[in-house]
Amino acid sequence: MILVKKWNELELHTKILIGLLLGIIVGVIFGEKTVVIEPIGQLFIRLIRMVIIPLVFSSLIVGAASVGDPKSLGRIGSKTIAFYLCTTAFAVIIGLILGNVIQPGLGLKLDVGKVAMEAKDAPPLSQTLINIVPKNPIVALQQGNMLQIIVFALFIGVTISLIGDKGEPVLKFFDSFAEIMYKLTAIVMEFAPYGILALIASVVGSFGLSVLLPLLKVIIAVYLGCLIHWIITYGGAIKLFTKLSIRRFFKGIVSAQIFAFSTCSSSGTLPVTTKCCRDNLGVSDKISSFILPLGATINMDGTALYQGVCALFVAQVYGMELSLAQQITVVLTATLASIGTAGVPSAGLIMLTLTLKSVGLPLEGVALIAGIDRILDMARTVTNITGDSAATVIVASSEGEIDLDIANSKTVNA
């Protein structure tokens, strides 16, 4: 009883961290037998997916309607897109610098056999822009097409604000529905420590810690790059554009970071990221409900950084040298592809094949990192949601939509 009481007194991010560590221990001890508890993790992921679509849809409608003036919405959107593009470019550059310094592929002789990777092209940007407008909004909701859902919700929200009083009943409905979804999300999150324990135990049990050893330098380069990106790019932007301390920012989103690390899903982490930005960092519902769903869909800084490291890794393994012009091409390709592949399944793989193809590197190189992709995906996802949170705080500060009393409070809500 005492242990149960102590457990209940812990904050959620502490429970999640404990679940993560216990999952690693269980995976090491029981190995492939952990498949028995994997359904617990999958059940938790299904619960999270259950709340994502209604949460995003309702909160975006309320957010867009709350902004009111379409010009204000356009201003917020422009700031957000500009931030995402700039930080993505910085991420690729950091990845390339580390790839040149650490040289993860130098001297590594791996037998890739005759694995042939078929080039997977991202859809053209023009087609992506056309496809974001749903032909049938109901189908978009049913299929979980996030870009189309975002666009449809924004249209509804803006139209509600344009028709004035007649739109109030609909706005009140979605406002109440959004609050219901926030509460339901909080209930689902109580199961997070157990779901994460099962997920991590399954990964470690299936692949073993030895999966880290063959390509350790790649892992070090990606993780170090992500850490540098958090501190210099995001931390610098927070310091420059807000009155929030860097330490307070990272303390406020630690729950979302741990969750993203465990699940490797930016969209799946969205409810937690939203809760952190609202409750811990004082961001208004109007800003968080607009920027975070957009970021979870198109912001891929972690994936872009990984492109830079992996492109150089593949070049080094095959004894090829990328010129400065080719490395600049990698920066441009990965930055634009981060939006061009938005909403596409296996976006990381598509971006990598697209990047390798743009500078004439063998697509077979993708096979070299397939075994550790899950490990790399953990760092990529944490970086992606950290970028989403940074953008939200920065834009909220520029719009006067942040409560500094909450943001600078010593208390961090679970």
Write the layout of secondary structure elements.
Blueprint: H1 2-9, H2 12-30, H3 38-67, H4 70-102, H5 125-131, H6 137-143, H7 146-163, H8 168-189, H9 192-207, H10 216-241, H11 246-252, H12 254-263, H13 266-280, H14 285-298, H15 301-317, H16 324-340, H17 347-358, H18 366-369, H19 373-398, H20 404-407
Helix pairs in contact: 2-9, 2-12, 3-7, 3-8, 3-9, 3-13, 3-14, 4-10, 4-14, 4-15, 4-16, 4-19, 7-14, 10-15, 10-19, 12-13, 12-19, 13-14, 13-19, 14-19, 15-16, 15-17, 15-19, 16-17
Q: What's this model, at a glance?
A:
This protein is mainly α. Helix content is 75%, strand content 0%.
Plain-language structure description:
Helix 2 runs parallel beside helix 12 and helix 15 packs antiparallel against helix 19. The protein is globular and about 70 Å long. With about 425 residues, it is mainly α. It has a single domain, classed as Proton glutamate symport protein. It contains 20 helices and no strands. The longest helix is centred in the N-terminal third of the chain and has 33 residues.
